[in-house]
Specification:
This protein is an alpha+beta fold. The protein is built from 7 helices and 31 strands.
Length: 485
């Protein structure tokens, strides 16, 4: 029992104690009981060293009283009545060890402590067991709730799929020169969005038909007014600016912390850039501001939302944000490609068509050809800042022959023969290993780029069969393409 009490002391627990007379303190210390020793001197307090405790505050700590001498017995005879008067607790037992041999006192005192503390320790053990049982039930309930929550999220994502909700659309009043906002080189246009930021996923600007210079860069930033955070940033080169809507997509939607969103555009070039303008607005705060001056009109724009704080599939017409400069997506969110990318894939070699999109499975079949490579080309599918690309692969039939799959990242322009592109990608470390599968066994193929591309690149989905093998029933497919910075 003394060892148990000493172990409790090393863990920083409050020790129970016994009360002795002042004259018996030295003899009680010699017993090495491992519990606290309190001295009673006939008043309403107990002493422990230099500390003084009122009797009524010690009901949880005092478990007994000992007398080890006749003088101690004489003094301690009045303690049970005094204890009852001060605390209201009755049944306190004074243990007289004065007639016990000195060498047997330690064992006798330990027996008394065991008899006194065993019911308390048993009750404590039962209490701890009850707590552990409740903790186990809490963990089970937590796990059940977590599973239910994940299933609900999966259901929401499966229902939403790649659909975004167009929540705001302010088209241009006209496409003529007089209806556009003119952004001078180095100028900045700002537009406050008239909606909350919850789940915001895409923005679009209208670019009127105009001569676009070969050199130039449009930088778009989405800021949150209340926190001052930069939510996303896009860098669009002049060569990517074409007449119509310019869609800017985020790798991860904004959270449900609703804030005021503001779009900021900066144009760097030698000539001005015209942007579509919308309705006149009476509130200057909601009008477009060019270099701090309100224009009286809003900037033509569209806004899409998705489920808050998640990673929606990247739309085929979207320009991905600059991954290296954002804080809400880097290292956390995965960039999933919308299956529409697969549906709109181009033939790697137009003279030997080999593609078939299976809409029911969101999978693209790239049928291998004898003795040559077969490939699908996804234009602009690899945004700048990406270093890891992966895809799910596999045949659609148990009798599918042995097929090898690979991924490659290639420049968008100029277009060159497929074989040359693959050789160049292999030399630059932008071709994955070949992964072999047969039948309908699925697998994954991944590509780790030596460095992130500085601008958007095309993605090749490549298949081949080993030399001399048949290509019959070569229903090789790619699906579930994702990337990460």
């Amino acid at each position: 029992m003394s060892e148990l009490l000493r172990a409790a002391n090393t863990r920083g627990l409050v020790l129970p104690g016994v009360v002795v007379a002042d004259c018996d303190l030295v003899d009680a210390q010699a017993l090495e009981l491992g519990c606290a020793l309190f001295v009673w001197q006939g008043d309403d307090v107990l002493l422990e060293g230099t500390c003084t405790y009122p009797l009524q505050t010690m009901t949880a700590r005092v478990v007994g009283a000992f007398s080890l001498s006749d003088a101690g017995q004489k003094l301690m005879d009045g303690f049970p009545a005094h204890w009852h008067a001060a605390t209201g607790a009755s049944g306190f037992v004074l243990n007289d060890l004065s007639s016990t041999a000195v060498e047997a006192r330690a064992a006798a005192a330990a027996q008394v402590l065991i008899k006194t503390l065993t019911p308390a320790f048993s009750a404590l053990a039962r209490h701890n067991a009850d707590l552990l049982q409740m903790l186990a039930q809490l963990r089970i309930a937590h796990e059940v709730q977590g599973i239910a929550l994940r299933k609900r999220e999966q259901l929401l994502l499966s229902q939403a799929q790649s659909k975004r909700w167009l929540v705001q659309s302010h088209g241009p009043l006209a496409t003529g020169r007089e209806a556009a906002l003119c952004l001078m080189p180095g100028g900045i246009v700002q537009q406050r969005l008239k909606l909350g930021s919850e789940g915001l996923s895409d923005l679009a600007l209208f670019v009127p038909a105009q001569p676009i210079p070969g050199e130039g860069c449009l930088t778009a930033r989405l800021r949150l007014a209340e926190s001052g955070d930069l939510a996303a940033e896009w860098t669009i080169k002049a060569e990517a600016l074409v007449a119509g809507w310019l869609r800017l997509s985020m790798i991860a939607t904004l959270s449900d912390d609703i804030q005021t969103a503001q779009l900021e555009l900066q144009w760097q070039s030698q000539v001005p850039l015209r942007l579509g303008a919308g309705l006149q607005h009476p509130d200057p705060a909601l009008c477009a501001h060019i270099d701090g001056q309100a224009q009286g009109q809003i900037l033509a724009h569209k806004v899409w939302t998705f489920l808050a704080d998640c990673s929606p599939p990247m739309p085929v017409d979207g320009h991905c944000q600059t991954l290296s400069s954002t804080t809400n997506a880097v290292g956390t969110a995965l960039l999933h490609l919308d299956p529409a990318h697969l549906e709109q894939a181009l033939e790697g070699d137009p003279e030997t068509p080999c593609l078939l999109f299976h809409r029911d499975q969101d999978a693209l079949q790239v049928h291998p050809q004898p003795d040559v490579l077969s490939a699908a080309r996804l234009p602009g599918a690899v945004p700048s800042g990406v270093v890891t690309i992966a895809a799910r692969i596999g045949g659609l039939s148990p009798i599918c022959p042995v097929i090898e799959y690979a991924l490659a990242v290639v420049p968008r322009h100029p277009l060159r023969p497929l074989a040359d592109l693959v050789i160049e990608a292999a030399g630059a470390g932008r071709l994955s290993d070949w992964v072999r599968r047969d039948g309908d066994i699925e697998g994954d193929v991944s590509l780790l780029l030596p460095e992130a591309p500085p601008e958007a690149r095309d993605l090749l989905l490549i298949t081949r069969v080993p030399l001399g093998q048949t290509t019959a029933y070569g229903w090789a497919t790619f699906r579930d393409i994702w990337m990460s910075p």
